[in-house]
């Protein structure tokens, strides 16, 4: 008789956990823990075994649920109820590092009824966010400690106060507007700061590291070239590129209000090669550059607007000009570990709710010179030579 699936999964988990343990021990690293002082990342060389454990444990978990619980995952939408309260009242910031405080003190500081505070936080604790080391006392776990950083707390606020309502109703309906997310959020200083902090958190995730772009595309081979970083925000990618490749002259284009602040942040030693320019990417491109680089731009727009953004480049395209797009490349189903695919598909739905856009596969209507998918990177690098979109 063939081995049952649950035994197969148990064997995968056993073998892969041993592999992880051996790598961690060889590097003098502790076993993963929820402790507030546990390290927040893992060495790259455990990633294959980690994928295997995460997929096998989640399959085993799901196999042992009955269908209604599997479908609804314990009223999963309520996860966002407690996360929203944690972020809105900055509860993680109330708990001293290494210390603990009573539920009542949290309720008082947050202006919440104590019973509600207990219920919200005990639900969060089932997700390993906060713990109750002694009855009635709240302390940090690794996850809640992360949220004690105000920038991280803003990231969670954006997730629960901007993205979650938009996921239910769409951004326009949840804000009762026909304006874009940029103008609505930009018109409220509090929301704008929160949103910009959340974007910084996304940008600092290891799988969005600028090194993937630097290490996986041969910028040095381009010779002395003019690059335009379209929608380049604070110039964080442009400065990293310019620091590494002396052959690059980079103009960062973004909206006027972004550029006005960002242009003061260029390091002294790069000022000769990195500059800023206010430019609306729907208007004709004024610079006849050698390379037009768009990172994390097109996924914010539906096809209709992406075509306009690309079309605005046409008058500036000289022979040999390159368009380099760095975006998520959606995998075909089952081609990557399921836990990663689930995250990507959730992000894709998020883009639909917020921007009426999507995470794309590499569209064959482009003439694509290459698609590079660096190991460990969330973003693929797509080099387009010519575009035949209508
Ligand atoms: C998701 S961010 C990507 C930022 C950066 N490229 C990166 O990879 O971190 C999108 C950027 O597009 C800019 N943007 C939005 N609409 C724009 C427009 N019409 N013209 C120029 N930039 C725009 C935003 O200000 C923002 O900096």
From TrEMBL:
The keyword S-adenosyl-L-methionine applies. SUPFAM superfamilies: S-adenosyl-L-methionine-dependent methyltransferases, Winged helix' DNA-binding domain. One of its GO terms (molecular function) is O-methyltransferase activity. PANTHER family: PUTATIVE (AFU_ORTHOLOGUE AFUA_4G14580)-RELATED, STERIGMATOCYSTIN 8-O-METHYLTRANSFERASE. Keywords: Methyltransferase, S-adenosyl-L-methionine, Transferase. Residues 154-362 form the O-methyltransferase C-terminal domain. This is S-adenosyl-L-methionine-dependent methyltransferase. It comes from the Eukaryota. Pfam families: Methyltransf_2 (PF00891). InterPro entries: COMT-like, COMT_C, SAM-dependent_MTases_sf, WH-like_DNA-bd_sf, WH_DNA-bd_sf. GO terms for biological process: methylation.
């Amino acid at each position: 008789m063939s081995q049952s699936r649950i035994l197969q999964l148990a064997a995968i988990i056993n073998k892969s956990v041993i592999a992880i343990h051996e790598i961690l021990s060889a590097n003098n690293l502790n076993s993963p823990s929820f402790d507030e002082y546990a390290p927040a990342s893992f060495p790259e060389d455990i990633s294959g075994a980690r994928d295997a454990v995460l997929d096998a444990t989640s399959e085993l978990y799901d196999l042992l649920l009955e269908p209604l619980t599997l479908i609804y995952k314990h009223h999963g939408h309520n996860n966002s109820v407690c996360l929203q309260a944690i972020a809105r009242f900055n509860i993680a910031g109330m708990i001293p590092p290494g210390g603990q405080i009573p539920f009542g003190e949290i309720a008082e500081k947050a202006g919440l009824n104590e019973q509600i505070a207990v219920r919200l936080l005990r639900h969060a604790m089932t997700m390993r966010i906060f713990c109750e080391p002694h009855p009635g006392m709240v302390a940090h776990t690794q996850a809640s400690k992360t949220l004690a950083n105000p920038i991280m707390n803003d990231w969670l606020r954006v997730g629960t106060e901007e993205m979650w309502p938009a996921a239910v109703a769409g951004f326009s309906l949840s804000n009762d507007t026909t304006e874009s997310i940029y103008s609505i959020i930009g018109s409220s200083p509090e929301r704008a700061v929160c949103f910009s902090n959340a974007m910084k958190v996304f940008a600092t995730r290891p799988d969005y590291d600028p090194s993937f772009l630097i290490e996986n595309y041969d910028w040095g081979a381009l010779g002395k070239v003019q690059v335009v970083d379209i929608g380049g925000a604070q110039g964080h990618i442009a400065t990293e590129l310019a620091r590494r490749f002396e052959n690059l002259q980079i103009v960062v284009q973004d909206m006027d209000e972004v550029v006005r602040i960002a242009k003061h942040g260029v390091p002294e030693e790069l000022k000769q090669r990195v500059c800023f320019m206010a430019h609306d990417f729907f208007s004709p491109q004024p610079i006849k550059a050698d390379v037009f680089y768009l990172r994390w731009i097109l996924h914010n727009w539906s096809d209709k607007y992406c075509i306009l953004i690309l079309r605005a480049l046409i008058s500036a395209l000289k022979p040999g000009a390159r368009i380099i797009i760095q975006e998520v490349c959606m995998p075909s189903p089952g081609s990557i570990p399921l836990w990663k695919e689930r995250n990507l598909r959730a992000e894709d739905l998020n883009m639909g709710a917020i921007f009426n856009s999507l995470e794309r596969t590499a569209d064959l209507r482009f003439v694509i010179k290459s698609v590079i998918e660096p190991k460990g990177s969330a973003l693929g690098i797509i080099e387009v030579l010519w575009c035949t979109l209508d």
